């Protein structure tokens, strides 16, 4: 499948609500490899994507998490910006 088609599908995806979600996974994905990255957030209970963030910056994820205080569990890779964002934006969540 061509990358442009995949990006079109992702941009037009109707994501499920993040209301009441308690377990979230975050990972990055490339708009353009080695140049532009975004973050995808997944409900770990359903395996469904719930949001896409325009970048993988600490502040962006921290703000997203602060709006969702019910998150109890976070899954991430070793990317340091995600670790910092989770520590400040969802301090009670276990990782």
Characterization of this structure:
The chain is of the alpha+beta class and 95 residues long. It has one domain (3-89): 2-Layer Sandwich (Nucleotidyltransferase, domain 5). Helices cover 29% and strands 28% of the residues. Strands 3-2-1-4 form a four-stranded mixed beta sheet, with no helix packed on it. A hairpin with a 3-residue loop joins β1 and β2 (36-43). α2 runs parallel beside α3 (80-89). The longest helix is centred in the last third of the chain and has 10 residues, at 80-89. It comes from Sphingobacterium corticibacterium. Residues 24-94 form the Transposase IS204/IS1001/IS1096/IS1165 DDE domain. This is Transposase IS204/IS1001/IS1096/IS1165 DDE domain-containing protein.
Overall number of domains:
1
Label the overall shape.
Answer: globular
Structural class of the helix and strand makeup? alpha+beta
State the share of residues found in helices, binned by percent: 25-40%
The strands making up the biggest β-sheet line up spatially as 3-2-1-4
CATH topology: Nucleotidyltransferase, domain 5
- CA radius of gyration is 13 Å
DSSP strand (E) fraction?
25-35%
Assigned CATH class: Alpha Beta
The CATH architecture:
2-Layer Sandwich
Count of runs of 4 or more consecutive helical residues:
3
Order of helices and strands: HEEEHEH
Biggest pleated sheet = 4 strands, mixed
Please give the number of β-strands: 4
């Amino acid at each position: 499948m061509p990358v442009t088609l995949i990006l079109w599908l992702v941009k037009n995806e109707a994501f499920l609500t993040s209301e009441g979600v308690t377990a979230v996974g975050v990972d990055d994905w490339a708009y353009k490899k080695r140049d532009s990255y975004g973050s995808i957030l997944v409900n770990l209970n359903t395996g469904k994507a719930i949001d896409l963030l325009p970048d993988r910056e600490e502040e962006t994820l921290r703000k997203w998490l602060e709006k969702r205080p019910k998150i109890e569990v976070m899954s991430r890779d070793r990317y340091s910006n995600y670790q910092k964002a989770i520590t400040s934006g969802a301090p009670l969540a276990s990782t």
